């Protein structure tokens, strides 16, 4: 009887192992339009390439302008010869339109002693709608109404914004330090600041550094526009990346980067001072 029991136990074990399917590795598949799998913080991203002087303006090669009167050293009049596209705001919408531009001498109220001197440069366009930015002609730029999404102008450390644009999920978030001079103050003192954009590339969460500043002088990073400029159905950005209250730096970020697994890259900037 004991021998029979042992044989039965042996047969049960043989059939149990024989019927068990080979173990397969379970792969986590993230859908491109799904939710982010985890809370993204400074600890969950690769900061190896990050620094506090990003982007570096001198490395951005696309010419960018704006319409206003500027100091003599802020505008190259030869840029008038290029083909230009402007992002224009009219009513509640935006349009991207090819436009002639004019760069003419003008009275600089800060530098010139009187209106006869005119050392400044005035940039103007043939289109009279409100100009958000002027960009030299790039691949994908055509006359069109521009899809856009509303996002907060300022994102402070420890803040994040999730949103969808043209079917894709995005997250803007910032790291760094912030403090108020007093509890009643509306203004934050920010340092060690980094602004990031996250989305899905080939089913994988990918995060890109947008800008980094060690400190600010009564200024803060400002998102001016979020939408599709280059026609690829993905998010492009215009951000004022200046860190000083008397400076503006209109920085253009495009999603057509030419790099594998890249979300967005800064391509051009126009910097100028207020006085």
Helix content: under 10%
What is the radius of gyration computed over CA atoms, rounded to a whole number of angstroms?
27 Å
> What coarse outline follows from CA principal-axis ratios?
globular
- Main sheet, how many strands, which sense, barrel? 5 strands, antiparallel
What is the distance, rounded to the nearest whole angstrom, between the alpha carbons of the first and last residues?
Answer: 103 Å
Number of discrete helical segments: 1
Query: What average pLDDT do the residues reach?
Result: 86
Q: Structural class of the helix and strand makeup?
A: mainly beta
Count the beta strands.
Answer: 17
Low-confidence parts, pLDDT < 50 over ≥5 residues?
1-33
As a percent range, the share of strand residues is: 35-45%
Q: What string, H for helix and E for strand, traces the elements in order?
A: HEEEEEEEEEEEEEEEEE
Strand order of the largest sheet: 1-13-12-11-10
What is the total domain count? 2
Offer a few descriptive terms.
275 residues; mainly beta; 2 domains; 5-stranded antiparallel β-sheet; disordered N terminus
Overall description:
The protein is mainly beta. The protein folds into 2 domains: 150 residues, no CATH class; 75 residues, no CATH class. It is 7% helix and 42% strand. The chain has 1 helix and 17 strands. The strands form 4 sheets. A 5-stranded antiparallel beta sheet has the order 1-13-12-11-10, with no helix packed on it. Strand 10 and strand 11 form a beta hairpin. The longest helix is centred in the N-terminal third of the chain and has 18 residues. It comes from Flavobacterium potami. This is VCBS repeat-containing protein.
